[in-house]
C-alpha cells in the first residue's frame, strides 16, 4: 500500500535559502518550522517584528541549530515589498524557494497603503510584486521555485476586471475568492513565462484544505462580530485539521520534484483534510486569456515589470 506523504520525505535542505511570507502564524509558521528543521536557511518575512521573534524563538527551542532570519515585510505596502527585496538581495546570493503564503480572508472592506482592496492587494498583488522584485535572485538559483498558497475558495472566485478593487459593490467572500483564483492564475502564467525563457525555475501552487489558524478569526474581529467569531471558532474546532497538517501541501510543493504549474492539496473529505497529493483546480484557474490579462493588469497596478533575461 502506498504510504501517505509526510514530513519524513523532506530531504536535507542544507545550503538552501527559503523565504516564507507570513511565517509567524498558522501554515507559514508550520512550513518554516519543518523546512528549518531539515537544514534550510529560512527567512521569516513578517509584518510584525514581535510576532516574528516569538515564532523564531519557538522554532529554535525545538531546533537549536535552525538557521532563521527575520526580515520585515508588509505585503499591503509596495514600499515595504521593495525594501524587503532590496535587503534580501543584499544579504543572499541565492533563493531556492519563495513561499508566498501570507494572507487575509473575508475582511470588511479595507485598502492597502497603495489603495488596493486589501484581500487582492495582500494575497495577490503584494506577492506578485514581491516575486517580480526577487526574480533575478530566483533565476540565478538552479531549480528554484515559487510556491503560491491558494485555496478551495478559488472555486467561487472570478476575476472582476470591470471592478477589480470592489469599489462599486463589496463582497468580502467574493473578494477572497477573487484573490485566491488570482494566486492560481499567477502560478500558471509565471510558470508559462519561465518555461518560454528556458529557465529551470518553476512556479507551483498548493492549498491547505481547512486548517484551524488565525485566518478565520481576523475578519470577524475586524467587523466586531462576536457571533461570527464564535461560529468560526466552532467550525475550526469541529471541522478543521490542525495547522501542521494544513502545512503539508506547502512543504510538499516546496521540496518534491515537480515540473511546474502543479497544484498540491489534501485528498480526503472533499479536499478539506488528509495527506497531500497533486490535485486539480477548476479549469478557470488555468484559463490562458484571463491569466495573461491579470498579469498585465498586475504589472500596471504594482509598477513591477518582470525581467526574465
Ligand atoms: N487556514 C485555512 O483553512 C486556509 C484555507 C485555504 C487557504 N489558506 C491560505 O493559507 C495562507 C496562510 O493562512 P493561515 O491559515 O496560516 O492564516 P494565519 O494564521 O492568519 O496566517 C496568515 C499570515 O499572513 C500574515 N499577513 C497577513 N497580512 C499580511 C501583510 N499585509 N503583510 C505580511 N504578512 C501578512 C499574518 O501576519 P499577522 O500574524 O501579523 O497577522 C500571518 O503571519 C493564506 O494565504 C490563506 O489564504 C488557509
**What ligand species are in this complex?**
NADP nicotinamide-adenine-dinucleotide phosphate
On the 0 to 100 scale, the average pLDDT is: 96
Q: What gross morphology would you assign? A: globular
Could you say how many structural domains there are in total? 1
| Strand residue percentage | 5-15%
Which secondary-structure class do the elements indicate? alpha/beta
Q: Helical segment tally? A: 9
Distance between the termini: 45 Å
Helix content: 40-55%
* CATH architectural grouping: 3-Layer(aba) Sandwich
Q: Taking strands numbered 1, 2, ... along the chain, how are they ordered across the largest sheet?
A: 3-2-1-4-5-6-7-8
Write the H/E string, N to C.
EHEHEHEHEHEHHHEEH
| CATH C-level label | Alpha Beta
- Report the biggest beta sheet as strand number plus sense, adding barrel if it closes: 8 strands, mixed
Alpha carbon gyration radius: 18 Å
How many beta strands in the DSSP annotation? 8
CATH third-tier fold name? Rossmann fold
Unreliable runs: none
Relevant CATH superfamily: NAD(P)-binding Rossmann-like Domain
Keywords:
309 residues, alpha/beta, Rossmann fold, 8-stranded mixed beta sheet, 45% helix, 14% strand, globular, binds NADP nicotinamide-adenine-dinucleotide phosphate
Amino acid at each position: 500500500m502506498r504510504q501517505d506523504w509526510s514530513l519524513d520525505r523532506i530531504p536535507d535542505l542544507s545550503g538552501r535559502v527559503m523565504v516564507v511570507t507570513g511565517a509567524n502564524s498558522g501554515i507559514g509558521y508550520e512550513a518554516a518550522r519543518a523546512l528549518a528543521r531539515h537544514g534550510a536557511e529560512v527567512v521569516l518575512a513578517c509584518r510584525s517584528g514581535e510576532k516574528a521573534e516569538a515564532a523564531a524563538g519557538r522554532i529554535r527551542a525545538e531546533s537549536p541549530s535552525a538557521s532563521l532570519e527575520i526580515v520585515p515585510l508588509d505585503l499591503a505596502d509596495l514600499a515595504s515589498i521593495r525594501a524587503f527585496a532590496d535587503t534580501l538581495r543584499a544579504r543572499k546570493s541565492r533563493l531556492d524557494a519563495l513561499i508566498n503564503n501570507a494572507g487575509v480572508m473575508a475582511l470588511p472592506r479595507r485598502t492597502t497603503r497603495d489603495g488596493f482592496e486589501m484581500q487582492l492587494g495582500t494575497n495577490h498583488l503584494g506577492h506578485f510584486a514581491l516575486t517580480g522584485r526577487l526574480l533575478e535572485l530566483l533565476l540565478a538559483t538552479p531549480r528554484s521555485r515559487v510556491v503560491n498558497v491558494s485555496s478551495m475558495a478559488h472555486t467561487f472566485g472570478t476575476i472582476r476586471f470591470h471592478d477589480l478593487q470592489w469599489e462599486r459593490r463589496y463582497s468580502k467572500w467574493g473578494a477572497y475568492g477573487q484573490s485566491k483564483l488570482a494566486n492560481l492564475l499567477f502560478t500558471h502564467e509565471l510558470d508559462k513565462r519561465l518555461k518560454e525563457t528556458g529557465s529551470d525555475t518553476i512556479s507551483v501552487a498548493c492549498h491547505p484544505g481547512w486548517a484551524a489558524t488565525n485566518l478565520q478569526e481576523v475578519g470577524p474581529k475586524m467587523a466586531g462580530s462576536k457571533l461570527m467569531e464564535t461560529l468560526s471558532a466552532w467550525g475550526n474546532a469541529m471541522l478543521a485539521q490542525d495547522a501542521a497538517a494544513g502545512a503539508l501541501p506547502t512543504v510538499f510543493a516546496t521540496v518534491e520534484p515537480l515540473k511546474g504549474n502543479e497544484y498540491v492539496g489534501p485528498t480526503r473529505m472533499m479536499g478539506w483534510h488528509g495527506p497531500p497529493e497533486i490535485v486539480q483546480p477548476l479549469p478557470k484557474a488555468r484559463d490562458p486569456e484571463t491569466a495573461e490579462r491579470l498579469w498585465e493588469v498586475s504589472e500596471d497596478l504594482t509598477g513591477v515589470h518582470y525581467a526574465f533575461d
